[in-house]
UniProtKB/TrEMBL annotation:
Transmembrane segments: none annotated. This is Putative AlkP superfamily pyrophosphatase or phosphodiesterase. Gene3D superfamilies: Alkaline Phosphatase, subunit A. The lineage of its organism: Bacteria, Bacillati, Actinomycetota, Actinomycetes, Propionibacteriales. It holds the Pfam family Phosphodiest. GO terms for molecular function: hydrolase activity.
Length: 371
């Protein structure tokens, strides 16, 4: 089990460290000891776990050249895009920013909110009200830019986690040279600049085909080629940093436990959220301790099961604000090895091969490359 060292070696420390180098007020230290510069490009490759990239490094020749001086950091808990990108964007642990997983129950409305698709009338900027690093850097005169898919402009997740940067969108993900040129132009804006570039196809290949598939390895090669194309276009005074938001594990069909098909697991559970590797259970008509005990008895060493209070005490989410606490399930289950807890309430997840969200090394640890 990997419990993040919040405030020291997680994704939440990355942008605050860059902000300190860029002279943004309120940021005066860099826990990750990143190189000093006045221009930075940060590339986040969705699904780039450290174990995965090391295992397949022959498919990534550019990253291979950086591997000997690469370091590692961790995602927050759960190890999932929504939580990780909000840790990154706000510089805060999950218990402070409140984007607590792929899906979660909203205390005020009791709806299950999918933070990635944001099919809700809830205002993202009210739901996640903390300022972002981009907000503060822009206010301090740093030219901040996001380069990402055009359709993410103004999305719920963009507004909640990454607002404050000028958004420059592209439509063709395969146009690596065009994307690289956009990043390079953005890096030359102003006297100081910070560019965030997002690459998603590795994660999609893993979910759809698995991390051992030809498709996943091809997506890694493409992501590597994008990084090289960007570096080739950047001036020497620009420092480029590459990381991931989580890793991934392939889940065999016979290691998928469907909650609704198991009376012991389904008993006393009002709502189910989270994702297959990190289930959040909302318990309105039973004792959370009783539900947790049944899950522990049923799953044994296939999952780490905690009540919400136990997980908070163990430091899974960092310090948790009272206004955020009720977003977490009364019981949480982080699956071990290659097991998952599936729910028929979320048909979208039933067809996934690669999954993430739990506290294993394969999911939690991401690389930190600097060039």
């Amino acid at each position: 089990m990997i419990i993040p060292h919040y405030g020291a070696t997680t994704l939440a420390e990355l942008l605050p460290g860059l902000a300190a180098h860029l002279g943004v007020p309120s940021y005066d230290s860099d826990p990750l000891a990143l190189p000093d510069a006045q221009r930075y490009v940060l590339i986040v490759i969705d699904g780039l776990g450290d174990q995965l990239v090391r295992r397949a490094i022959r498919q990534a020749p550019y990253l291979a050249g950086l591997l000997d001086r690469a370091r590692t950091i961790t995602s927050g808990v759960p190890s999932t895009t929504v939580t990780s990108l909000t840790c990154l964007g706000t510089g805060m642990p999950p218990g402070r920013h409140g984007m607590v997983g792929w899906t979660a129950r909203v205390p005020q409305t009791r709806e299950i909110l999918n933070h990635l698709f944001w099919e809700s009338a809830i205002d993202p900027e009210a739901y996640q009200a903390l300022p972002t690093i981009f907000d503060r850097a822009s206010a301090a005169g740093v030219a901040t830019t996001t380069v990402s898919l055009d359709r993410f402009t103004g999305s719920g997740l963009t507004r909640a986690a990454l607002r404050g940067a000028e958004f420059r969108g592209f439509r063709d993900e395969d146009d690596l040279e065009g994307r690289a040129a956009m990043v390079a132009r953005a890096a030359q804006r102003g006297q100081r600049s910070l560019v965030y570039a997002y690459e998603r196809r590795l994660d999609h290949a893993g979910h759809a085909h698995g991390v051992s598939s030809h498709d996943w390895h091809g997506a890694l090669t493409d992501a590597d080629a994008l990084c090289r194309a960007i570096r080739d276009r950047l001036d020497d005074d620009v420092r480029m940093i590459i990381t991931g938001d989580h890793g991934m594990i392939d889940i065999p069909d016979d290691h998928r436990i469907v909650i609704e098909d198991d009376p012991e697991l389904d008993a006393g559970v009002t709502d189910v959220a989270g994702e297959g590797r990190f289930r959040q259970l909302y318990v309105d008509h039973d004792r959370p301790e009783a539900v947790a005990a049944r899950w522990r008895d049923r799953l044994g060493d296939r999952a780490w099961v905690r009540t919400r209070d136990e997980a908070i005490e163990d430091g899974w989410f960092g310090p948790v604000d009272e206004s955020i606490k009720e977003r977490y399930g009364h019981v949480v289950a982080a699956f071990r090895d290659d097991w998952a807890g599936m729910t028929r309430r979320m048909e979208r997840e039933m067809g996934l091969i690669g999954m993430h969200g739990s506290l294993t090394e394969a999911e939690m640890i991401v690389p930190l490359f600097v060039d």
